[in-house]
Amino acid sequence: MAKQQAVDDFGAPEMQASETQGNSGSPPAYSPPSNQADESQPLLRDHASRENSRRSSSAAVRRWFNSVRPTIKRASPLLIVLGVIALLIIFMIPRDAEVTTLNQTIDAALYRGLSFKLDRGISGDIVVSRSRNVSDTDIRVFVSMKASTSLMLESMAASVDLDPYTSVAKSRVFVNMTDPDLKKALARNCTWVDVRIIFPFTLDKGFKSLEIDSSRKGSVLVLLEDLELKEKLVIYAREGSIAVRDVRVGTEVKLEAERGDIEVHRLWADERVVAKASGSVVMDMGETSQYLDLEAISTKNAAVAILTKAFHGHVSLKSKRMPEVIARCCFYVTYTTNHTMEGFFTPNGYEPLFLPRVELSAKVLAKVVIARQN
User: Sheet harboring 138-147: ordered strands across?
Assistant: First the structure.
């Protein structure tokens, strides 16, 4: 009883003091409000519950992904194939698509040079041949055009510009749109043309030049059956191969297949021949003059070969692999590395003369000024 009385007496003064202060009217002693802690507790509990829910949902997504990962891995080749098929269906030209054919006639007696171009947005193959009809006297250009949509086909056109001062006919196939509209149209559509350029059978000599520019997809095939071009033959194919057979050229031959191969058989040239391709380059040269300067370049893993008869001239070959020269005789190597071979052909044992050659290579500007001093 004494201990209990002591405990009661120990807490009594505090109780009595509080009661005395309350009764006397003086302000009560400050104590921190308990309702702030009471209000923050639900907020903390809500935040914790949301965090736990987020973590549990993320864990559930990871568990689900890990469970279906083997299935996705097994099905990925099929999904890729289906995606490619879908893209082909979107951009494919229907078999029963409407075809528009345009014909151009060029007087070979008045115009001694031809320049043909497939402009931006136009893909297609170009075949150059010679007529079998002896009564034909004009150069004829046949263009067969297709497109994935009728609206795109209506925008395709062909034109020919006849320049009497230079005696050169310039023909091209193009899409009649502004650059922004053409860019949008090519993102959803595709085009294709089949071009045939037919030279008259009676045209033997006097024709100066032939230039072909394929700025998109498509190959170029030239079969002229010994037709002689007095000045030059220039062919550029951006995404396609180039094949040339039975052509005689007086001054310059320049062939470039940016993403394709080059194959030349029975080309007779007198001065400068350059063939450059990302694939293989095969040159079969006929007999030429003593000043031939031939350069073949392959920018990817493809051998460069010269299949040739004996002629008099220099050869320069470059490729990722060791260039190859296959010749019956008379080839002399002057310089060779793993990627380069230089030499010359000579039927009489003497090295031929070099042609004057100026080569420039620059990303911005390359300029040469040649001045004559008296």
Answer: 100-107, 138-147, 191-199, 124-130, 220-229, 242-249, 262-269, 281-285, 304-308, 324-327
